[in-house]
């Protein structure tokens, strides 16, 4: 289940984190920008909202976090602090590289882009190169009405863009995916990846 409690409990054990959730940015109080998880039954400790201030207190050792949600790279520019985004919080928590969105992500486009991103990453491409090729592949079939940058230009890679080994390559890798109802189509491609815990 894509619950906040599951993420907090399990996320530090995986080198790839993929969250296809709804993101909400608060300009009034950036520390309360959040990712919305599925409501957890009988859980009085978590409210289903993973706020920036909570992410700052996490200890993540992931090589890559894919935040396939709306506005995960967007935030308020605070004097002396910089951009207060969800992506920055994940970097602060220890993630080496991020794939973020800078505006609202169309539900029908994101799953295809993410599928191709992982496919190219598995081939040994740099993260930035894998994303570029995923976008180019999308444009080949998008058609004139869905080829505008609005549909595909939101996603960017920041941090360490170097290649990484994922399952099926020369060494094993691990992915922890949480899919919410608003991105139900993502299930079509996440089924191609095994959920394997990293040995400690």
From TrEMBL:
Chain ranges passing through the membrane: 174-193
Superkingdom as given in the UniProt entry: Bacteria
Chain ranges of the CHAT domain: 2-160
InterPro entries in the cross-refs: CHAT_dom
Keywords: Membrane, Transmembrane, Transmembrane helix
Signal peptide (residue range): none
PANTHER family: RAPSYN-RELATED (PTHR10098), TETRATRICOPEPTIDE REPEAT PROTEIN 28 (PTHR10098:SF108)
Official protein name in the record: CHAT domain-containing protein
Organism: Fulvivirga kasyanovii
